[in-house]
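Please complete every field before forwarding. Incomplete forms are returned to the sender.

SECTION A: IDENTIFIERS
Entry label: holo-474
Bound molecule: zinc ion
Molecule representation: SMILES string

SECTION B: INPUTS
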Amino acid sequence: MNLEELYSYAKKYGFVFPSAEIYGGFSGFYDFGPLGAELKRNIESLLWKRFVTQKNFVVGIDGSIITNPQVWNASGHTQNFTDPVLVCNKCNSRFKADSFVEDLTSEPVEDLASFIEEKKPKCPNCGDELKFLGRTNLMFETVAGTKDKTYLRPETAQLIFINFKQVMNSFKIDLPFGIAQLGKSFRNEISPRDFLFRLREFNQFEIEFFVDPEEANNCPFFDKIKDNKILILSEEDQKNKQKARKVKIKDLLGKATQWHLYWLWEFYQFFVDLGIKPENLRLREHLKEELAHYAKACFDIEYKFPFGWKEIHGCAYRSDFDLKQHQTFSKTKMEVFDQKKNKRYIPHVIEPSQGIERAFLAIMFEAIKDDKLMISKQLAPIKVGILPVFNKDDFVGKANELFEEITNKGYSAMIDTRGPFVKRYDYHNKIGTFLTITLDYQTLEDGSFVIKFRDEDKLVRAKDVNEVFKLLEN
Ligand SMILES: [Zn+2]
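SECTION C: PREDICTED COMPLEX
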């Protein structure tokens, strides 16, 4: 299935629609339909459960989308959060210059402006010559009240840094610990593309993990993961044009600290547990020239999309840069005091950053097989399809009873009486319903019903709803 086909599938079955399609859509914005909203929420809930609720050293916050513009001055976004732009003289189309050039050559390009000057690339829309326009900031500007210019947040991370002290002081939590946030971010991409891959409005789940730099190689969970194997495209292998290779986590210690590798492994395992095959996942080490000056190391988790290996998760070691910047700009001390060691220091930060829509896209690609959405039980938008054989009062009455019992337990369900019965199985396969239950004449007599699993042809007669609950339990 290619990207076009996935887009049609997602639209046809009510997962994702172009935003404002009745007005012709709006580039870089999408709306989630009934099934997509469920799936997206499931991804988000699983992330929160796994990385906040179930980790006693991570807490969550929910910061504002619009905040004091000084935040973005301190973080460097006002100055540096820019993309190079190509413009067409004739039709005025604009393109993100680095991605455009990446498609033209496999060689690294040092100077975009002179590369454009020399190669004179043509506009894909009208064929005229493209010119290098310079750089443009990616933040959406807005005005609070009548005169205070500010921005929609381009990432969730900075809201965590500015609340670091508040969380520590109010929640009395000791280092090392993480603060997580889940929510919307906005980037005014020059050329949004690849459906949900590059959006102007999207959702992120980010953790800032604060650690004493002297303790970055002292992760109590490292022993458990150190012999696990993972596919990685290292910096050297990229430079020597070698393929990715499988290594043990501990073999990467020269490149990253224990805590950094711990977080990478945790998110890698998250995707595997959600049903993504390990051979479709790899780490890619950022090249030295890709790293910001303050970052010590950065790795992406990439997924093998039909349009190539692309980043679905990033995890950077950001040193003390962000807290230091906010200390300088706000004149608020960001140091912590370690009583045992009797020292004051600014913590270092490891930042796992997860784009929700990119995870959504990878999960959809991975799950669609033979026109069925073979999605994991936890992710399935509808857990139970309730199918009365006849659309008559006594059947529907029984269906309503079951619907209430199932949804009261927190599982999503759907009563489906539409169209010919045989087509309903097919429909529920396409939308990934985990199991369906069929109500027939015997149901009216003794309350039993027939369970059909999405992933096998087997039919099982079940005595009552408790058998369904057993199957749905994790
Ligand atoms: Zn043009």
